[in-house]
Design brief:
The protein is an alpha+beta fold. It has six helices and 15 strands. The strands form three sheets. The chain has a six-stranded mixed β-sheet with strand order 1-2-3-15-7-4. Helix 4 packs parallel to helix 6. The chain binds zinc ion.
Length: 267
């Protein structure tokens, strides 16, 4: 079950199944509650989209304050539509370091793993037994690379997570109602199992792509039980009042922040 919650200035979507665990703070932030203006209004956290630098910094500070994230402990990525994953276990990344990757995993309390999106899928992972978390970004390229399954596998390899202990949450992303794709995207995804469930024929050489469903099927195939996979279901392009959408904003828009963090001091 998903619900909207307000904390400080920030309105966000949360999954009750994650909140109920008691040891994870998480949020799929909406675009509401920040200081950015124009196409970046309000809570833009994208630093390479044309928004004012000081506004982006202020927005990140507002989120940090709302969720009591310690200074320098919100980890962001330079997302490159790849499948590399950064594990944060021993040494913390340097202050201000933004690793080039599309997924992060940690067992360290107090480290917030952030994903910036505007149509692409934000993915959260929580091993409810070993208390390990992960966050990832998957657009169509990441989906074609099997990013969702790569994250679950990486948690298993590095932290001995069992698939049945992992809760996966698929956040707000562009829906099949609005995401028309062309032949190159079709070619990248059509050989995947059950492709007819996420590539719906549209016009000539056009398909409607259900990105969230690609990730959900990958996780099922990986071995996660169906009830462990939660899908938010909001379409970012349909709901521009709530979310930034790259497609609907014709490329000129902001990025929303999605993050999760193991609470310091346990529960
Ligand atoms: Zn839509």
């Amino acid at each position: 079950m998903f619900g909207f919650v307000q904390r400080g200035a920030v309105k966000f979507l949360e999954a009750e199944e994650i909140s109920a665990l008691g040891f994870v703070t998480h949020a799929f932030c909406t675009r509401q509650g920040g200081v950015s203006e124009g196409p970046f209004a309000d809570l833009n956290v994208g630093d390479r989209v044309g928004d004012r630098e000081e506004d982006v910094r202020r927005n990140l500070t507002l989120v940090g304050e709302a969720f009591s994230i310690q200074e320098g402990r919100l980890m962001l990525m330079r997302q490159v539509h790849g499948d590399s994953i950064r594990v944060i276990d021993g040494a913390m990344p340097l202050p201000g370091e933004v690793p080039e990757c599309d997924g992060m995993i940690t067992d360290r309390p107090g480290v917030a793993l952030g994903v910036r999106t505007a149509d692409c899928v934000p993915l959260f992972f929580v091993d409810r037994i070993r208390r390990v978390i992960g966050a990832a970004h998957a657009g169509w390229r990441g989906a074609a690379l099997g990013m969702a399954a790569r994250m679950a596998d990486a948690m298993k390899e590095r932290f001995s997570s069992r698939y049945e202990d992992i809760l996966a949450v698929i956040g707000p992303a562009i829906g099949p109602c609005c995401y028309e794709v062309d032949a190159p995207v079709f070619a990248a995804l059509s050989s995947r199992r059950e492709a007819e469930r996420f590539l719906i024929p549209g016009g000539k050489d056009r398909w409607m792509l259900d990105l969230a469903e690609v990730s959900r099927l990958q996780l099922l195939e990986c071995g996660l039980p169906e009830e462990n996979i939660l899908t938010a279901g909001f379409c970012t392009a349909c709901r521009q009042d709530l979310f930034f959408s790259h497609r609907a904003g014709r490329g000129r828009t902001g990025r929303q922040l999605n993050f999760l963090m193991l609470n310091a001091g346990g529960n």
